[in-house]
Amino acid sequence: MMKTGIARSAGSQAVIALIVALSTAGCTTPAGGTKGTAVTPASPSKSDGNSQAVAQSASSESLSPVERRLREQSQATQKTTVEGTVIGTIGGGLLALLTGTEMVALAGAAAGAGAGTAAGSYMATKQKEFSNKEDLLDAMIADVRKSNQDTEALIASAREVIDEDKRRLAAIQQEVRKGQATQAQLASARRHSADNRAVIAKASKGAREKQTIFQSAERQYREGNPSANTGHMQQELDSLNRSIATLDSLAQNVSDA
């Protein structure tokens, strides 16, 4: 127990140190990047509070297997975005110790730092793993391809959830007309549908943040290696952008009628 407490304390101290580091990261030169200005970590917004309320509302209701899967995929997308930004700074061991609240704090700091800083951190981590520039590019392409696969899986889950919502709402609306269900039950179903829409929207936001980081990293790589051909990576990025656009459209199409 004492070791766990010490480890948790180290994790919390790392969070504080990292938020401070990210707040001034714009003053440094990321790998292959350019010097910028200091930034301030993003403060929790009203939308963050609304998102937390949505999560609490959803957890209080019974979720179907595909709804649980969608939430797990959405959380993984957002967590991976933060990890890609900070793991090179605090290390995977400490990252694993962070609480959900601390991850949110890191997400805000990472967002405030901007895509250029996040891409610089990502590039620095990759350069530690791959000293050869061709191997580095291949690893970056593999990361974008994995994000593409994850996003496609998210789209498949989102479509299943949308179909479930439509069937649920249609059934309850019919029961209301027959006097077998109340308006309160219909309103609850609509809130449930709205929760699902928020989850899809958050997943899309996380995927777009990753795409932005990858795009900036690709640009930094080209600046450092002018003769390199990054066409394959750009193709993967274009595919990811199309998938994200599909996710955005699905979030708008979740029925709440």
Report on this model:
By secondary structure, the protein is mostly helical. It is built from nine helices and no strands. The chain has one domain. α1 packs parallel to α5 and α3 packs across α6. The longest helix has 45 residues. The protein is elongated and about 70 Å long.
Major sheet details = none
Structural class: mainly alpha
| Count of alpha and pi helical runs | 9
Describe the global form. Answer: elongated
Strand content: under 5%
What is the element string, with H for helices and E for strands? HHHHHHHHH
Q: Which parts are unreliable, with pLDDT below 50 for 5 consecutive residues or more?
A: 19-58
Domains, number: 1
Number of strands: 0
- Our measurement of the CA-to-CA distance between the termini, rounded to an integer number of angstroms, reads 51 Å
Q: Percent helix among the residues?
A: over 70%
Mean pLDDT: 75
What is the CA-atom radius of gyration, in angstroms? 21 Å
Short description:
The protein has 257 residues and is mainly alpha-helical. It has helices spanning 2-23, 46-59, 65-90, 92-95, 100-113, 115-129, 133-177, 183-224, 231-253.
